[in-house]
Write a structure and sequence with these properties.
The chain is mainly alpha-helical. The protein has helices at residues 2-29, 43-53, 59-71, 86-121, 126-140, 143-157, 170-199, 202-209, 214-243, 246-251, 257-266, 270-298. 76% of the residues lie in helices and 0% in strands. It is flat, with a radius of gyration of 24 Å. The mean pLDDT is 83.
Length: 305
């Protein structure tokens, strides 16, 4: 297992390098630049800004300077956030996005997995049809549409919850529900399909033929073996939630990583774009590694040699 983890970490370094290289090239290939405005800046001002931020140098030299800065923990200085470092900007937004993401992930799994497994245990019953119906509905509704509907009902009509902002627990409810809707639907559908497959396995029939109680069979044989497909999807899903939902954070005016990243793209803020992409790629890779390790914990038959 230790050698497997070391090998994956080494691959992670290579993956991050390739992601940085592709992102850096694409940013500089797109027409325009960070100093383009509706009212054009004076050429002398543009030249001074390029010298200050090192944009006057060749692209390959800018890239290697950026790589060198990363080894010293420096993600660069933002062009659009009053000369603040990208590290400080992300550090300000990550806790907010992580709070939303973790709460949405917990809510999604707490709803989706039990619903899916309960539907599978009662296949072709009213509970099964209801679970499939709600999973299909919430998997089909875009997050921003659901957010607008929730704001109309709970904020405009009922005046129960605020429409936007950050700081109060009540302001978390609507965005967390919006973020959790699609993962909950996916978790429910995957849990149902996985549980149905496990129910048809020989070891489940053998356990019942031995006279074991249904509750013991469900906990020891069905539930645990049904989790592997769920965990496979849950890892990247958690990474997506923690790295931020651009649309939901903008819709509810939450100053998280998603909203910061969108602002960086709009301003052609190269260091901020690179920082957001790196944060996203690193999170995906780490959670995929965690998922692989969890495989061996859930199913003793799985080993990484």
């Amino acid at each position: 297992m230790l050698r497997f983890i070391i090998r994956r970490v080494l691959w992670l370094i290579l993956v991050l390098f390739v992601v940085m290289l592709i992102t850096f090239i694409l940013m500089h290939l797109i027409p325009g630049g960070p100093w383009d405005r509706e009212k054009a800046l004076a050429p002398a001002v543009v030249k001074a800004l390029n010298i200050r931020y090192g944009l006057d140098k060749p692209v390959y030299e800018q890239f290697f300077n950026y790589i060198g800065g990363i080894f010293h923990g420096d993600l660069g200085i933002s062009y659009s956030y009053s000369n603040r470092t990208v590290t400080s900007i992300l550090a300000h937004g990550v806790p907010k996005t992580a709070t939303l993401g973790i709460l949405a992930f917990i809510l999604a799994q707490a709803i989706g997995i039990p619903f899916g497994m309960a539907a599978a245990m009662r296949q072709n019953s009213l509970a099964d049809y209801t679970s499939v119906l709600f999973s299909t509905i919430f998997a089909s509704i875009p997050g921003f549409v659901l957010g607008i509907l929730l704001m109309i009902v709970f904020s405009v009509l009922l005046h129960w919850l605020p429409t936007s902002g950050w700081g109060s627990p009540l302001q978390l409810i609507l965005p967390v529900i919006c973020l959790a809707a699609l993962p909950a639907a996916q978790a429910s559908r995957i849990a149902r399909a996985s549980t149905l497959e496990v129910l048809r396995q020989d070891y489940v029939r053998t356990a019942r033929s031995k006279g074991l109680s249904e509750r013991l069979i469900q906990l020891r044989h069905i539930f645990r073996n049904s989790l592997i497909p769920v965990v496979t999807v849950a890892g990247p899903e958690l990474a997506n939630l923690i790295t931020g939902s651009f649309i939901i954070e903008n819709l509810f005016a939450i100053p998280g990583v998603g909203r910061i990243f969108v602002d960086g793209i709009g301003a052609r803020d190269y260091p901020l774009i690179m920082g957001g992409i790196l944060f996203y790629a690193f999170s995906i890779a780490i959670f995929n590694l965690v998922v692989d390790i969890l495989y061996a914990m859930i199913d003793p038959r799985i080993r990484f040699d």
